[in-house]
Amino acid sequence: MSGSAGSGGATGSARKRLMKEEDMTKVEFETSEEVDVTPTFDTMGLREDLLRGIYAYGFEKPSAIQQRAIKQIIKGRDVIAQSQSGTGKTATFSISVLQCLDIQVRETQALILAPTRELAVQIQKGLLALGDYMNVQCHACIGGTNVGEDIRKLDYGQHVVAGTPGRVFDMIRRRSLRTRAIKMLVLDEADEMLNKGFKEQIYDVYRYLPPATQVVLISATLPHEILEMTNKFMTDPIRILVKRDELTLEGIKQFFVAVEREEWKFDTLCDLYDTLTITQAVIFCNTKRKVDWLTEKMREANFTVSSMHGDMPQKERESIMKEFRSGTSRVLISTDVWARGLDVPQVSLIINYDLPNNRELYIHRIGRSGRYGRKGVAINFVKNDDIRILRDIEQYYSTQIDEMPMNGECGP
């Protein structure tokens, strides 16, 4: 919802006081009082076909920002969310955008601006996946691609356009991207967009939007320029602050087992099986195919394991998770879909059958949130060509990963 800068006398002057540069360090950003927490997707009042898409995507429980922001955005409020990546921010606005669409109307109803082409494409893919059962049309409008293709796609009709400010403005100017039906503008990673010099283009795009357009702004930091922008673009915005749950490797003993070849990993795992079942263990593989293969191989060797990945039907995943949480099943083989937010207190052993593809995933797999501070053990199976990755992880987290003692004594 637009509003001229400083709308409303008293609030306008109060805002301007906030804007004084020297005060900026003192501005404490807190979540607005009227923000309720909605703990499940089912209680958010979302359309049925969207809920199906959310669960099929692999989401079970909304993250902190999703619990607070989705309902406010759906209500039509302007929202400023201070949030970093890794908090579920992209799905927050994607779910909200999809909920607000009229699929029967083949016109652009939501516009999402992002600082990089990669992020815009990632947002587009996420929207298409979450909106899989809705028949949603979504296009990524980014520089460095064929303009003719953009024009063709936009002429066909797109419910949502995600893009970088320069190309989006170009398409609006060419009248290929029509703005008359736009109800919502999302500015993702707004601080990054300003850092990249997109300020003028964002303002240019905004001038073409209908006066009542709802604005959602996501930013990890809130510098002076961002607050200036929110003053110009937003009416009485709701503020939501979400701190990332800092994961830590404290209290986690980390080991590696050198395996010369991929085939040796399986034998090593079988040798460790008795250690695994003392408490509960999660074994991570990098692909769904590997999860299925390893599960089958373990069962053939008469070991009891359960497994889970994103391709399994929601109901099946829920029942596997339930069994694992209750302790009925003790060894779970999984992909990274379950590294984030998988919190089972009894798990004190993590095995990386495959080292993760990037170092952020390492801490999501084995880290513990500081609130719980539980002890644990992580064992990494390392082939010769993985040594470099292991050393990189050690350096990145300033941690030590020792070779596992041969007697297998690696208790927490």
UniProtKB/TrEMBL annotation:
Coiled coil: none annotated. It holds the Pfam family DEAD. Residues 1-21 are annotated as: Disordered. Residues 1-11 have a biased composition (Gly residues). SUPFAM superfamilies: P-loop containing nucleoside triphosphate hydrolases (SSF52540). It is found in: Nucleus speckle. A motif (Q motif) lies at residues 39-67. Residues 251-412 form the Helicase C-terminal domain. Its EC number is 3.6.4.13. It is an enzyme of class 3 (hydrolase). GO terms for cellular component: nuclear speck; spliceosomal complex. Residues 70-240 form the Helicase ATP-binding domain. One of its GO terms (molecular function) is RNA binding. Keywords: ATP-binding, Helicase, Hydrolase, mRNA processing, mRNA splicing, mRNA transport, Nonsense-mediated mRNA decay, Nucleotide-binding, Nucleus, RNA-binding, Spliceosome, Translation regulation, Transport. Residues 39-67 form the DEAD-box RNA helicase Q domain. GO terms for biological process: mRNA transport; nuclear-transcribed mRNA catabolic process, nonsense-mediated decay; regulation of translation; RNA splicing. InterPro entries: DEAD/DEAH_box_helicase_dom (IPR011545), Helicase_ATP-bd (IPR014001), Helicase_C-like (IPR001650), P-loop_NTPase (IPR027417), RNA-helicase_DEAD-box_CS (IPR000629), RNA_helicase_DEAD_Q_motif (IPR014014). It catalyses: ATP + H2O = ADP + phosphate + H(+). Belongs to the DEAD box helicase family. This is RNA helicase. It comes from Tricholaema leucomelas (pied barbet). The gene is Eif4a3.
